[in-house]
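cron nightly-structures :: item 1 of 1
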Amino acid sequence: MTQPYDTRAAFNKAIDLINTGQADVALAVCRDALEQNENDVTMLALAGAITLKTGEIGEAEKQLRRAVKLAPSFAKPQEDLGLLLLETGRAGEAVEKLRNATRLDPGEEKAWLSLGRALAADGKGEEADAAFERAFELNPERRRLAEAAEHQRAGRLDEAQENYRRVLRDNPKNVDAMRLLAGILVSQSRQLEAEPLLRRAIETAPDYTLAMMDLGRLLHEQHRYLEAIELFERVSTLEPRRPGPHYMLAASLAPVGRTAEALASYRRTLEARPRHAGALLGIGHTLKTLGQQDEAIDAYRECIRLLPENGESYWSLANLKTFRFTDDDRRAMHAAIARHEELTS
């Protein structure tokens, strides 16, 4: 006899998977649940939230709009849809959805915070301040983080550090404070102090991709490529539409001789951002390493076509030794120099 479908059990399973850094498996659970009941608003909204995090914007918007239509009094999909609209440059539409979210759940401080950002982007400064103030009332810890971030932006790093440390004294599990404090320490060449903070942030929140990226970059800069690769692979799985994880993965694979894998990661970077200069150059460098000189030249020329001001493309061609510039190439270089001088004079 077939067991009845249990929405709560599926939802709890998906949340547990997210909390252990397995968002891709959680999304599969959501999709299985929706095959059982396509109108399960809870699972539809959760699928939309996960898909938004992975960067599949079109699919996420479709899921969240459907969830909002099926359950207009459900605050969370309104909040997530508002955030999606904000992040894709549609601040006016975002304000409407986020106002609905805060009306439906006035105690959700993250919705108020997003509403503040949307109002600010829509040119409504006073209303934005009021929304931020409401978020801070609901979560005073958030206010201390905002104050610390303001100190950091203004270059008052001692004050910023003290604020982040105060937050961590009150709440040792605040992963944002861990990561932001680590960022200051890295800027001060105090990597030995920063690394444990980032590792603790990831241990506390296994799907915290910002901390994973920061730790991966720190390890990459120390030439600890194998450790960095592991982190960048995790992030590129969790957020496959973001170019940064693929690019940093490629940049870490190349130095350890995993050239073909590096080339594939550079290409995935371009799928996410076709004008990514680093990936375009990386493809050229990797093809050169593989002995495919004609293909490397094509890659460098594509970089010049898309980004004519990028001088490294010309330098890379010159560094091939056997390559010879044409008269058109020289005219293009002189024109790029002239444009640069005009902009900087």
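cron nightly-structures :: done
The chain has 20 helices and no strands.
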